[in-house]
């Protein structure tokens, strides 16, 4: 229920933004190494300035730092991951974020009388992948259950989900905290992973009457297939007969497959929570089972936070936080909530911490009460009789297990062994596309550290400016390797290398062709001529050099380079220059 | 001739007087596709004057292929009878406007010598909880008044592909919840044998329509006996197939794990032809079986072929619990007579005990209520159906559902919601599932020792209207004969076997023949031979007898 209103908020604040890339830039300043990947990537520059990413959490934690050390936060996260299957979970409708409302619906996902769900086998495959990647035990025999409640965005009056036998459970995820926050390795337990279907979305009509009276209906788009025409007749009549309305239900998202990943309450801070969520995002992107995009709602986190005095065994009262649209918002929201609860503990007002759902208010940078629970909701789960039980064979699981790609944790450990710094490791392993690019360049013989530096430096800067993803640029890993070896072998200078890189990135081509095109001077005779000219023109400096001021070699090299308009091969130049300078001494 | 001479219903089987026409005729696997085969199969049949148990569908096919009659004549004949009887019977909620034009199309096909589907020109009634794209489908509920589906149910689509003409939508207890069709949100249907009696339910409209020859055959749905009990009450054949044999796609769900679409016909052969047409795997129903559908009809032998012991060696178990206390004596004696009849046909008949028999009824009502409380959640007035204006969301739901649902439906939603609630699940739903497993095992074991089991289809003949209306427990108890079959998911066939008393006030009695899962063919064979050798019983209600 709560989800719906949040989503409509999301829709209105973000619906006009495009989400072109999965990879953002390098650290912007200080915070949230991993948060950039989805936290800010779709936000335009204008908006970026409106929502200050830094400062606040630090300032806030500073305020309560002294008091906070007496308390411990216990955090558990429920993450909903939208699976990027071609069709919905139980029907053959496609799902595309941003489609016209109610344009991808059918009798099944609309819950029309007589329609029945049929499971899309890709959902199982993706769930098994995620279960294995999270080191879970898989249930070879699981089933679907109905979770029952009424809401206009829930067409059948129940959600097909999994209750007592989730497809995967008892796993864990490993991650490394960013260096800026002191680094460190963490392992968080995964309680369960289960499959379920998404609900529709409520769109609050802007030309509503403002009346408290609400009538819910859905609006049909004109492009509907012929089998929906009769349906349209019925509902157009209905629409016409309503006087008051301020909500429209969009069922495009209804029936889209989700995985709900529930963590153990192992998380202790906003940072850890944000990093946990970022790791889940990396994982599903590595696996190719979801785009993991928070703005589109493909990755949604509900966070449970409680605080207890250090040393106390039982948990404090749990508060649920929703409406966090980025990892950085998660970090800030949780830290705010921890402080809020700790202050109440500290001031002896523990009773004021009540079991409730709070919303993160991005504008005010605080959590606010959304609703207090009047006891537990009774969803009356029972086994879904329309779907057969889900049975997996060992062979099926083994086959999927064998096909899993290298996962973020394995990547990080491998990069570490390759000699990269943790900072580099975290940057590269953050994005599976960047990893693939880096790995390919190294495979083509590129120097590991240089490849990392180029990717994290100039390439990342370019990607940031152009808002591209690394596999959208024209530069191939082969050419990056070529560029690096050209610099290493002294064929070109680092400065020229940078120029060539920018050209390759924007226009493509090969390093060799660009060197030729740039008319670079690699002929020793020609360079020798220029060296001799420069020495002849600067007899005073020559004298000083020969008197022992050998650092003047740099001056001569600069002059020769200047004379060649920067096109002389620096290695040759220095070699010849040294020979000439030292010739008569 | 078998029983063509009998003009009045007779209460008892006449034993030993069977005569078999030994005239040789050709057997054909696809007998109903060939005129020659049809004519040799029923050499005596004259359109509409044949015995009540001969195949009306084959007769129609024969007369169309031989160009004896036109499809429009046949359709007109049925429509006329429908119009004349409907004011008394009220079995239809909606009658198709396209019957005559569809019949004309079939005539044109015949003129052009095009191939005819096996159900060409056959008028079929469809229970109103089965979706039809060209007619409203309300499930007998006001909450779906005027609702028109966007798709045909798979069973309906298959019927149309076979050339059938869907004549209309038949009345029923709201969403299948009831045993008398009195719980319809729209009208009460009368039993064609006696207008003061109910036709049974919940597929009462479908049974009454076939009984009154308003249509040739019909589709119903059976969750706890909703095909078999009205078949018995109306003196027609009713087939409840194995769960999963027929796609449920397009059947408005009542209790998904029990629901199955079934068939009504005036003969076993017609029910078999209909089931053959609608059965089979459907990719839109994950619970539909991939098992191959046998050619049921080709396995039915012409009565003329029968030797004196056509069912020799068939092991028949009479479920003793179904003939005990609470069962009308007329029913008991009819079933005993049917058992003797089967014995004379060569069967070895013995009594069998089913200790779990009485446990099935409460388990059924818990499971069916639980599933229905969930299945009916979609009727919220948001996307379709009538919406009541309301101040806020909760009252919108409340108003829509309070106005739209009838009292029986509300009661079952409440019962199901209660039984699934936290703290009650184990005591009700889980326990009922355990009983269900027990019943399944029990029936399966009994069916390995016996080829078929027999019992009454209902403990009494058709109830008087209103008789059980204020006594839901008595109403539920009436389902005791049928619910175990649904819990086990196995098939059962109901064949009229006699009457409750001699004379015009006699009401039909149905024999239930239960088989192992996917063994419908055996049921049809037994039912067909039973029906063809049943003497002096003519199951055409007096209301239309002069006409038929
Ligand atoms: Zn759909």
Description:
The complex is a heterodimer of chains A (585) and B (548). With 585 residues, chain A is α+β, with helices and mostly antiparallel strands. Helices cover 41% and strands 16% of the residues of chain A. Chain A is elongated and about 95 Å long. The N terminus of chain A is likely disordered. In chain B, helix 1 packs across helix 2, helix 6 packs parallel to helix 7 and helix 10 packs across helix 12. In chain B, 35% of the residues lie in helices and 11% in strands. Chain B has 17 helices and 11 strands. Chain B starts with 34 loop residues before the first helix and ends with a helix. The N terminus of chain B is likely disordered. The longest helix of chain B is centred in the last third of the chain and has 24 residues. With 548 residues, chain B is of the alpha/beta class. At the A-B interface, strand 9 and helix 6 of A face helix 10 and helix 11 of B. The complex binds zinc ion (ZN). The site of zinc ion has 8 residues of chain A, from loops. Chain A: It is found in: Mitochondrion; Plastid, Chloroplast.
Distance from N terminus to C terminus of chain A (CA atoms, Å) equals: 88 Å
Note the beta-strand portion of chain B: 5-15%
**Fraction of residues in helix of chain B:** 25-40%
Number of DSSP helical runs of chain A: 20
State the assembly state of the protein chains: heterodimer
Strand tally of chain A: 17
H/E topology pattern of chain B = HHHEHEHEHEHEEHEHEHHHHEHHEEHH
Largest sheet, strands/sense/barrel of chain A: 9 strands, mixed
Class of secondary structure makeup of chain B: alpha/beta
Q: Bound small molecules, which ones? A: zinc ion
Largest sheet of chain B: 11 strands, mixed
Largest interface: A-B, 47 and 54 residues
| Poorly predicted segments of chain B | 1-51
Straight-line distance between termini of chain B:
17 Å
Q: Kindly state the mean pLDDT of chain A as a whole number? A: 81
> What topology, given as strand order, has the largest sheet of chain B?
1-3-2-4-6-5-10-11-9-7-8
Averaging pLDDT over every residue of chain B, what do you get?
A: 89
Spans where pLDDT lies below 50 across 5 or more residues of chain A: 1-62, 206-245
Q: Whole-number radius of gyration of chain A? A: 30 Å
* Order of strands in the sheet with most strands of chain A: 2-6-7-11-1-12-13-14-15
Radius of gyration of chain B: 22 Å
